[in-house]
# Entry
Amino acid sequence: MTIQTHNSNVLMNTSTMAYRNLLKTMHNPDQFMDVIVQPVMFMLMFGYLFGGAIAGGVQAYLPTIVPGILIQTMLSAASGSGSQIREDLDSGVFDRFKSLPMAHIAPLAGQLFGDVLRLIIATITSLTTGYFMGWRPEVGFGWIVVIGLLAILTGWALSWLFALVGLLAKHAETVQSFSLMTMLVLSFMSNAFVPLKSLTKPLQVIARFNPVTGVITAIRQILATGSWTQSALLVLVFDLSIVVVFAPLTVWAYDRN
# Structure
């Protein structure tokens, strides 16, 4: 009975903190832009500015750019975990949480599970923007849900990494700089926006080893074949491995703080 009550309290406290973090995102212009404004802006900008030069037209470019922008948005949304955690630590909010009758892990768990809601919003925004621009995948709606879930899982797995950075860094500005640099390097040094064959040989090698390339390739293969591919399985294993490795490290850093 005691164990059940404790688990119930942890779940309630975590859901409360997740709701708090979602409200914080909606009332913070910078974080709100990551999940709503950025995917719309980049989809329109890259599609209409570079579609003709890269693919001969916007319609021909959309199958390339929609998965690319989707994963870039996941990176941006996931990076918000570290910034939010560091800001809460610097402002003393976590010290106030310690004085409240709540589960010790609830603030961290609430942040990470609140990220799932942010990632869902970002995914819907990205795919909906592509649809209004004329993107019409040939696979059924079920496979659209599959690629959305795969993207969300990837973003959530990376949230653990960025949360660890937020807990170990000394300043929120450091976390933001690291997050921005990581997002730009992983996004642009991949097949997100251009075919790999258009890159120079050294850049092709880097891009092939970039995990973002693997995720985007898996999504494009699912959209092209309407089936679960080996690349998708590798992405699933990769995401779960990140969680297995970085979740304990993040909890350790949280306890240390």
Summary: Confidence is low (pLDDT under 50) at residues 1-6.
